[in-house]
Write a structure and sequence with these properties.
heterodimer; A: 9 helices; globular; B: mainly alpha
Chain lengths: 242, 256
């Protein structure tokens, strides 16, 4: 089958999703502003729509804020780890350039965002059908958990799909399957590490009815994700003690 | 039951070819490895993509400028990372932390260089002192450039936490990752030195790690603040870490 190597259009997203290697490879072969802008655009639109669907349960303004913050996390994670990812790839046996590593990650996030964007109407529909948030957290606890779990499932699915395409692209670029897997795992760890903290700083996403709708909490830069998880575990362990 | 035929000559059992571990291919076999490295940037590129080329070039006569360039990159990178470390406390730490980190790394290397040479010689290695200097410079350079790669992540965390103990642990994690890659380079270079055993190098690695860890305590504070630029009390690094953990205040539960 002849693969059509098109410019930036909707067909490109389809080719990315299908994992057409010739297409993925061609897109990672040069710094082309138009292509990078297209990927950034898909991330902004796809992740933005998903963010809007996520935030709309709390308030319309929260939907707008999350629509801005969600793509921001993806773009900042890609940029923040560019240098590190480019250094780790050759050290782990994958001889690819900074450009290739950056574009490969950008393409994988483009795929993730496209999937998230496609799921956003479903999430919006689910949220529209959900009982509204109530000031008493106990009343909406069940709905809150259900919505939270739905986000986890959708985001995990998008993440798995994006990473499967990324490992295929890495294998194609390097011809080294073991190296591609190794690099993918290390990149995943790095992106998860930075992404979790960015998510922590840019909270809230779903929001809490008892707190005002804000772009950033006043305590955004106080504490970090891992410290909070650790302290939470300590509190949990101490709660059992008399 | 003894199945040995007493009339047949004693033939030692043959080792199957698949069990013979092949040594590394000789350096310079690939023409690309013979290409000289002309700049510090070239050395950075080579250590990431063609470490064998760098090891080969370090073994050639007149590798002094290359070695100097590598050390220069290591110093610049550790200064850059040090600035990021200093931004946690700001104030005088913005200049003190980079100076201490760069100086600490260089002093640690200087302290460990003689023992590296001795241990490699005891292992039967044919490497010259200059080659060992080159490997050590490679270790410092790789550590430095990887730390610069971690710098954006470290900066983000330093702006969003108040716990010096937590930031110290994070920097330690980044340092450990960078050091492990650097030591892998030293190991790769060492494997071309016809050494009979790796025990000497392994012992030296433990020494190097201990020295650099102790250096972080000897030059404290690197992350937090103190009244004096250098410590007035002498401590072993494990004691210092335990004291830091005890002194760390418990974090308040955050707003969701």
């Amino acid at each position: 089958m002849q693969t059509r190597l098109s410019g930036p259009d909707l067909g490109t997203v389809g080719a990315f999703l299908r994992g057409e290697l010739s297409h993925l490879r061609a897109w990672s072969e040069g710094w082309q502003l138009g292509r990078m802008a297209f990927c950034a655009g898909v991330i902004c639109v796809g992740a933005g729509l998903y963010g809007a669907a996520m935030g709309c349960w709390r308030a319309p303004l929260a939907a707008l804020f999350v629509a801005i913050k969600f793509p921001l996390i993806i773009l900042l994670t890609t940029l923040g780890n560019t240098l590190l990812n480019a250094m780790l790839a050759p050290l782990l046996g994958l001889n690819i350039s900074l450009r290739q590593s950056f574009l490969a990650i950008l393409i994988s996030f483009t795929i993730v965002s496209a999937i998230l964007g496609a799921f956003s109407p479903l999430i919006a529909f689910m949220v529209w059908n959900a009982p509204p948030m109530t000031p008493d957290p106990a009343q909406s606890a069940g709905t809150y958990t259900f919505i939270q779990l739905s986000h986890v499932v959708v985001i995990a699915f998008a993440g798995v799909a994006g990473n499967l395409r990324l490992v295929q692209l890495l294998r194609e670029l390097s011809g080294n399957a073991a190296g591609a897997r190794r690099v993918l795992l290390v990149w995943l760890a790095g992106n998860l590490f930075l992404g979790s903290q960015l998510t922590w700083i840019l909270r809230p996403f779903i929001g809490s009815p008892g707190l005002p709708v804000e772009f950033l909490r006043p305590t955004a830069f106080q504490g970090n994700f891992y410290e909070t998880v650790f302290q939470g575990l300590l509190r949990l362990a101490n709660a059992d003690q008399p | 039951m003894n199945t040995t035929n007493p009339s047949s000559p004693p033939i030692p059992p043959q080792i199957p070819p698949s069990l013979i571990v092949p040594g590394p291919a000789p350096l310079g076999e690939n023409p690309g490895e013979r290409e000289p490295i002309r700049s510090p940037i070239g050395a950075v590129e080579a250590i990431l993509r063609q470490p064998r080329r760098l090891i080969f070039q370090l073994r050639q006569p007149g590798s002094g400028p290359l070695l100097g360039g590598m050390l220069f990159v290591a110093v610049v990178c550790s200064l850059v990372y040090g600035v990021v470390v200093g931004t946690f406390s700001m104030g005088p730490q913005v200049w003190a932390a980079p100076v201490k980190i760069a100086a600490g790394l260089m002093i640690s290397a200087l302290i460990c260089l003689p023992s590296l040479y001795i241990f490699t010689c005891l292992s039967g290695s044919q490497a010259r002192l200059a080659e060992m200097c080159g490997l050590l410079a490679g270790l410092l350079m790789l550590m430095g450039i990887l730390l610069v790669g971690f710098a954006p992540v470290a900066w983000l965390f330093s702006q969003s936490t108040q716990s010096a103990a937590w930031m110290g642990a994070l920097h330690l994690l980044f340092w450990l990752i960078s050091t492990s890659f650097g030591l892998r380079f030293v190991h790769a270079g060492f494997s071309h030195s016809q050494a009979r055993s790796r025990a000497g190098l392994c012992t030296w690695i433990i020494l190097f790690v201990l020295v650099t860890l102790q250096m972080t305590t000897a030059l404290r504070p690197l992350v937090g603040k103190a009244d004096t630029l250098l410590p007035t009390e002498k401590k072993f690094f494990i004691t210092h870490w335990a004291d830091c953990l005890k002194a760390a205040p418990p974090a308040q539960p955050p707003m969701p």
